[in-house]
Amino acid sequence: MAAAECSGVVSGAMSNGRLTAANLCDLWQKPYKDRADAVVTAFAMNDAFTAKFGRPMCLTSGYRTYEEQAALRAAEPGIAAAAGTSNHGWGLAIDFCPNTYGGAAGVWLRVNGPKFGWDNPSWARPGGSGAFEPWHWEYVAGVKALAK
Question: Measured on CA atoms in the order 117, 44, 59, 28, is the torsion positive or negative?
Answer without folding.
Answer: positive
